[in-house]
């Protein structure tokens, strides 16, 4: 009889063992929440189902001289589509960012024609095979910057406008947390976290204050004016 009770108790414990909710808030050096930071959790146990937090086939638009979204998170092997919504050409380049830049990781270049009236936007696809950070730029427009974070953990999401990354059902155990931000050039040390069935809240502070991302142009259509400042190159 005793043995039966023990088995039931153990089974209940095991069932609830994967229910840990983890919230990581990313703050800047001044203590303000940082959106668009990437939070990676490496659970202590790989038991259970991997979450579906990442888009299977995301699109990065080139719109009004920006990459939208500015930061895209994918798993290795994901095909990313680049679509040019501007009336002028973009010449998108992708290169390994950071320390990996010195390695032999191949980059990519995509020349995307400007969108003509009544025509579909031109687009191109790139498959990103290995984990790492890809810096996106445009050969024609030096101000354009974007990033693709190719993660090595399915437990990866961007922080929201409150600077919070919210994970549900993280397996119990000692997890490692990595935080990445485009302007945090010195990698932050990983943080250890004990995941338990009850909610776990923690904060990670950057050593920088990211500049506020450039807002879209105030007057819609201004950048689309024929013969505008972007129309002059060939
Ligand atoms: Cu461009």
Task: Based on the model shown, name its key terms.
single chain, 234 residues, mainly beta, Immunoglobulin-like, five-stranded mixed β-sheet, 1 helix, 16 strands, 6% helix, globular, disordered N terminus, binds copper (II) ion
Sum this structure up briefly.
The chain is mainly β and 234 residues long. It has one helix at 2-16; strands at 20-27, 38-42, 59-63, 66-68, 71-74, 78-84, 90-96, 108-112, 122-128, 132-138, 145-150, 156-158, 164-170, 173-180, 191-195, 200-205.
Characterization of the model:
The protein has one helix at 2-16; strands at residues 20-27, 38-42, 59-63, 66-68, 71-74, 78-84, 90-96, 108-112, 122-128, 132-138, 145-150, 156-158, 164-170, 173-180, 191-195, 200-205. The chain is mainly beta and 234 residues long. It has two domains: 18-53 and 153-214, Immunoglobulin-like; 55-150, Sandwich (Immunoglobulin-like). Strands 5-11-10-7-8 form a five-stranded mixed beta sheet, with no helix packed on it. The longest helix is centred in the first third of the chain and has 15 residues, at 2-16. It is globular, with a radius of gyration of 21 Å. Mean pLDDT is 84; it is low at 1-16 and 216-234. Bound molecules: copper (II) ion. Copper (II) ion (CU) binds at residues 90, 138, 140-141, 144.
């Amino acid at each position: 009889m005793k043995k039966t009770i023990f088995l039931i108790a153990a089974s209940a414990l095991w069932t609830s063992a994967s229910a840990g909710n983890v919230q990581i808030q990313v703050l800047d050096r001044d203590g303000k929440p940082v959106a668009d930071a990437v939070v990676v959790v490496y659970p202590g146990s790989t038991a259970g189902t991997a979450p579906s937090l990442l888009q299977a086939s995301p699109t990065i638009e080139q719109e009004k001289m920006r990459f939208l979204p500015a930061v895209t998170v994918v798993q290795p092997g994901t095909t990313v589509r680049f679509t040019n919504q501007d009336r002028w050409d973009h010449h998108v380049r992708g290169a390994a960012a950071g320390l990996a830049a010195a390695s032999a990781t191949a980059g990519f270049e995509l020349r995307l024609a400007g969108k003509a009236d009544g025509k579909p936007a031109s687009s191109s696809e790139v498959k990103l095979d290995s984990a790492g950070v890809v810096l996106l730029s445009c050969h024609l427009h030096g101000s354009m910057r974007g990033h693709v974070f190719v993660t090595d953990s399915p437990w990866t999401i961007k922080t929201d406008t409150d600077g919070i990354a919210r994970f549900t059902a993280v397996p119990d155990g000692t997890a490692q947390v990595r935080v990445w931000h485009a302007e945090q050039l010195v990698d932050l040390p990983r943080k250890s976290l004990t995941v338990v069935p009850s909610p776990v809240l923690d904060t990670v502070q950057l050593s920088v204050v990211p500049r506020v991302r450039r807002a879209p142009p105030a007057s819609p259509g201004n950048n689309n004016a024929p013969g505008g400042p972007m129309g002059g190159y060939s």
